[in-house]
Amino acid sequence: MRFDPWSPEFVAHPYDAYAELRQRPVTFFEPTGQWLVARHADVNALLRDRRLGRSYLHVATHTEFGRPEDPAFLDPFWRVIRAGMLDVEPPVHTRLRRLVSRAFTPRMVEALRPKVAAIATGLVEDFVARGGGDLVAEVAEPLPVTVIAEMLGVPEADRHLLRPWSADICGMYELNPSIETQRTAVRAAEEFSGYLSELARARRADPGDDLISALALVADGGDTLTEEELVGTCVLLLNAGHEATVNVTGIGWWSLFRNPAELERLRADHGLLPTAIEELMRWDTPLQMFERWVLEDISVGGVDIPRGAEVALLFGSANRDPEVFDEPDRLDLGRRENPHISFGAGIHFCLGAPLARIELAESFGALLRLAPRLELAAEPTWRPGYVIRGLTALEARV
Fold it and tell me: In sequence order, what DSSP letters do the residues of 192-235 get, joined into one string?
């Protein structure tokens, strides 16, 4: 199989193509104009290399960097996205991450565990009472959306808006998105931005014990967080705060159903859960690709890549690299040496990784306890996206 991110067959199983790509240091992919980087050592190194960036606009204009100007109709989208810390570089990134990281210290995140456990248990109890259903819609999605919405202070009555907005915005991270996808993302960004701006103004007038209140007061106080940055940061936290966890849960259970011996091993020993979660993220990761712009000429495996180029770091391939992982194509829930890069590396390492691990542990743990004989009810289908990869549904019965 060849690298074809628009093929449903490839999206479902890209790993044979990755094995071929790892035979070369890098491969130029003409349809997107990107250099594909498939080996773990190279992906890991480039994630930490400051000669690359998520953006180039802190060092050059589009013209100076040899890139076309953004279409004017995308301005509302980019105003939101480029105000969040994922798509900026130091010193702006450093300042934004410092402000937001106050809410994600190990102590504060661990303090959330009882609340996460209670939400997960309630969702699974309802799922079991119904005799099963769609694990993605009924367990995987509500848990992280509820947790991050509560952290931010989004009222319960509005939370149904979040997942559709997020999905529409994340469509822009796919390769060569259609004009329709782009316009949908613009609309979602405008609506999401308008909603968060109103909520921030309300919190500034009447603060609560939540992250939006804290950031709104920072924006109004002695630090330098602007309202645009506040909105961009909240959009990022809401998107990143649940997209990966939803997809790890769905893909993870699908992986367990496909590996019944490992599922039985986990059912017999719930103490395996910490290593099992890391292994499920490695074996079939939701975030398959992370892109970087080349800010200075670099060389990867003896191949020169010039300034102005874009590299596509293939996380899914790196996580199956036999140079790093023993029997990488085998799911081993007890794997101890597991330096997967599903959360990234370097300055853009996922800030919410500790929270995601707690959510996954409580979700999987609740299902193992309360639905010990959970079984697949129907073969799942994959969403069309490749970069952010997930199942449309996962029907299971108790």
Answer: HHHHHHHHHHHHHHS--SSHHHHHHHHHTTTS---HHHHHHHHH
Number of Cβ within 10 Å of residue 75's Cβ equals: 12
3-state secondary structure of 152: helix
CA–CA separation, 318 vs 323, rounded Å?
10
Listing from the earlier edge strand, what are the strands of the sheet with 375-376? 132-134, 395-397, 375-376
Question: 159-201: per-residue pLDDT in tens?
Answer: 999 989 998 999 999 999 999 999 999 999 999 999 999 998 8
- The DSSP code sequence of 273-330 is HHHHHHHHHHHT-SB-EEEEEESS-EEETTEEE-TT-EEEEEHHHHTT-TTTSSSTTS
CA distance 165 to 187: 9
Q: Which amino acid is at 23?
A: Q
Can you tell me whether residue 132 is helix, strand or coil? strand
- Enter the pTM of the model: 0.93
Token duo for residue 35: 């250099």
Determine contact, residues 70/315, Cβ cutoff 8 Å.
no
Q: What is the CA radius of gyration of the chain?
A: 21
In this structure, the number of other CB atoms found within 10 A of the CB of residue 107 comes to: 6
pLDDT tens column, 80-98: 999 988 888 999 899 889 8
* Distance, CA of 129 to CA of 208 (rounded, Å): 35
Note whether 224 and 361 are within 8 A (CB). Answer: no
Beta-strand pair 310-314/34-37: parallel
Structure tokens at 328: 């990488």
Cβ neighbours, 10 Å, residue 379: 9
CB count within 10 Å of CB 8 equals 12
